[in-house]
Amino acid sequence: MQSIDAFLRQPLQIGPVTARNRVFLAPLSGISDLPFRQLAWRHGAGLVFTEMVASRELVVDHPESHARLRGDGIDPHVVQLAGREARWMGEAAKIAEDAGAAMIDINMGCPAKKVTGGYSGSALMRDPDHALSLIEATVKAVSVPVTLKMRLGWDHDSLNAPLIAARAEAAGVRMITIHGRTRMQFYKGSADWDAIARVREAVAVPLIANGDVTSRADIAVCLRRSGADAVMVGRGAQGQPWICGELAGSADIPADRKARNAVALEHYRAMIAHYGDDVGVRHARKHIGWYLETLAPRTPADRKVMMMTSHNAEEVVETFAEVLETAAGLSSEMESAA
User: Fold this and answer.
1) pLDDT band for position 193 (50/70/90)?
2) Which of 48, 64, 146, 261 has the fewest CB within 10 Å, making it most exposed?
3) Binding site for FMN: residue ranges?
4) EC number(s) in its UniProt entry (predicted)?
5) How many domains does the chain have?
6) Considering the entire predicted model, what is its pTM?
7) Catalytic residues
8) What is the rounded distance in angstroms from the CA atom of residue 251 to the CA atom of residue 309?
9) Which of these three, 229, 248, 267, is where a domain ends?
10) Which domain holds residue 145?
């Protein structure tokens, strides 16, 4: 029997696009921006997806939407689009393809109220006919593969992912990702990998399982129970953009604390360069918090407060570097004492 390590290292074919391994980084709104995706890609993720790009805003040239569209240095570049109208999805898909997207992913899984309140994201699962009109418009608009990410259903009374998946495959979708929760669960409880297996029975295209996958042990159980062809890591990547590569057995991950500290600092500087000081400092705060949880959990409260409130990028990065170095030193001392 093939080992889980060997399986995850295998490429996965999605139409003409080849994913280099079977551990993907999820599209994470407000998180998987260009600096984060570049790090995850460099450290071995099989595929990385942009945070969702609002289709109408992209068509009307909203600057933030075009910034989210970028994929510098990432090949294949996968863009996720969100919307509620077929016209905007089709036009936005063309723009994304012209900008270098090798695949277009449709967001039908986001549970956020500001998204579902506009009848986008997982709200589309409440009206499969309308959802299919968006899928058909997107597939028709581009020559690159179109993929779909969704949840099990809106709630446990409407677990319609298998039905929608089958119709999406018939409409030309080349890969389907299922987050093993309903919209009404948000991120509570546990992902239901067994329920994903109902989608496996409904489609032949590659199936990706998402939700609560943070270790090789998780992956082995998830793949066995879901029948999926690959997994997608979401919140588990927070504070460790190398995790997809690590789970896939990539040789490109930062191997020790010193190297991981360097990645964290590089990420901070890249965010400042990408957004500029004012915006970058604010966007980077959540990432600093996650890195501290991963690499420096004993950081003094006053140091945390300073990094989370200061508007001075240089001051923050100096403190961040100092905290990470101190934590690495303490870790080494504890290991030596043991």
Assistant:
1) very high
2) 64
3) 80, 149, 179, 234-235
4) 1.3.1.-
5) 2
6) 0.95
7) 110
8) 37
9) 248
10) 4-248
